[in-house]
Design a protein that fits this description.
Radius of gyration: 30 Å
Oligomer: single chain
Number of helices: 25
Shape: elongated
CATH class of the largest domain: Mainly Alpha
CATH architecture of the largest domain: Up-down Bundle
Number of domains: 4
Largest sheet: 5 strands, antiparallel
Distance between the termini: 25 Å
Length: 714
Amino acid sequence: MFERWGRIVYRFRWAFIGVSVIALLLSIRGLGIHGNIDGPQPASPLESDRAATLASAELKQASQAGSSFLLLFSSKSLTITDAGYRSALMHAVGPLTGSPHVVSVVTPYDANGQGLVSKDQHEAVAVVNVKDGSTRAAGYLRQLTDLVHPGPLAVVVTGNVPINHAFNTTLEADLQRAELVSLPLALLLLLFIFRSAIAALLPIGVGVLTILGGVSGTLALSNLTFVSQYAFNIVTLIGLGVSIDYSLMMVSRFREELKTGASTDAALMRTMATAGRAITFSGITVAIGLSSLLFFQGTFLSSMGIAGGLVVALSVVYGLTLLPALLAVIGHGVDRLRLPWQRRTGGRRFWYATAVRVMRRPVLVLVPCLALLVALGTPFLQIRLASVGVDGLPPTNAARQGYDRLVSDFAAFGNTEIPLVAYFPTANPQAGAAAEAVAGLEDRLAGLPGVVRVTPPQFGAHLAQLTALSNLDASSDGVRNIVKAIRAIGPLTGGGQILVYGQTANDLDVIGFIIAHMAYALAFVLAVTFAVLLLMTGSVLLPLKAVVTNLLSISASFGAMVWIFQQGHLHRLLNFTPQSIDPTLPVIMFALVFGLSMDYEVLLISRIQERWQATNDNPRAVAEGLERSGRLITGAAAIMISVFLAFGLADVVIIKSIGIGIAIAIAVDATVVRALMVPAIMRLLGRANWWAPGLLRRMQHRASLAEATVSPAA
């Protein structure tokens, strides 16, 4: 099937190139689409989100579409009671009241300004309420802050609007930095691998086209469904790495076939029958891994899964159409513009010798490798999950520094708020049994361990909102126990129910939601991946081995993630604040690492299977398969690692975590797993590697999915 497709591409090569040029132009035009990124989200399945929606719908102050930011004033010499301090602060905020964007400005000198003064009286906060939501208000935030002239006071801008704006702009900067670093680095590595400028530029060109198509497609998608800002990081992250990897496989195999004396058309058809088949199955396995994110509907994860699947599909499509069409046109010219240094001839024999040495004592190699992977994964047992807050920004960010000062210097900002609603669908919460239930609830909240104060209830048509305050950290076990205790109170008289929201409640809901859905996602990914590899290899044991070794690679990357980002090792070098792991991060890591690890598994096993069919000698097939793919896997892994480490330079912690975690996983997978464990396991299994029921083999041949036969010559 793939050989026939290669013949079609060769025959209509100019038509395929023309269609790709049209696709490129459409992708560039698509970049101008007005997307709706982070727009209205679908209905959330979480109790905390439902409570927040109810409160927003019924309470006046919560239903306003506006947002706010804070001006943190400070002076080393003056205190809030000094006339000079008051004069400077009021003069600074005065121009804001005349802006059409500003609804109100609350200062410590107003009647409702309680809690806006620091413990040492040298700092004060002015709350600026604006009429628009956070996203729109960020557009004129700079215009408003330019109106503030604090005189002898120092001022820092923080609060909802600047912090959200900092996250958005930092994510954009992270994306641009990663592209600027990863593309040149990938080109240098490709030049080192191919020693030819023409061969090296082909994967880069395909990678750029893939990213452009992925970004424009995701923008268009955002007008149809909710798409998170993080989805664009995934498009660049996956699109660049996977498309370059697939192009590397195709170009390398094409050059290899040309060196055997094959004509351009024969080399292309042979390349499509081998490398083309491999990248198709690899793309399917990567897409399967990403599809696990679709099990988390109602969260931003599903949009990342869709965007990732889109860019992987584009990588495979360009790898099977545009790239072979270009190779058909270039032909032997793929080796032109050779670089001056000579290719070392011993690289392939190194991998052959490595496989032979491993297979001499497979148990002595396998046991230490397993012990190493288990040790690397051990820190994951100590994982603590909590949503990323302002600590997700780098410590040098001004909005985050201002927020940190609020928490440390102001008593009112140091408390954790636990908002909740007593909801009565058919009753008035201010009358009868419902009113008595609200009063009783207020007393019960005040008596809970860890609660220092309860704010008076605020009433809507069918609910009463109360807020329990605690002096414990929002992600601490103490506050989580408070939330659990509130939820355990149960139904209220008058037909009421208690719904808790806020950061801590949302953390508990997200963790519970992920745990409840992760088992289904995991089962789906493992089962479908096993089935796809079964069709590819015609073997029962090889897919099982692939799944098990992939899980070991994932556990190692999870352990490294906890060791670095939660336990705080390397935090000074990497410029982040040690913190709990975001509940969504293990899900994202699993989806990405599982698929990408299969990339190298498919490449290696396809070459080993090719030699097995040619020689019917298992040890020889393993050694020759690693000989022919070891250098390519190393080069592909180096490129992928460089791409992900470029994202490790990100300032937003969750993106930094993904980049570094996956880079570690790929490094472990390409060395310990593929170069050592796979030869050892396949030597121990012997001819059983290739066993499969007769029905499976007949189905595989009938579908034209079997590996093409080759000459037994070395």
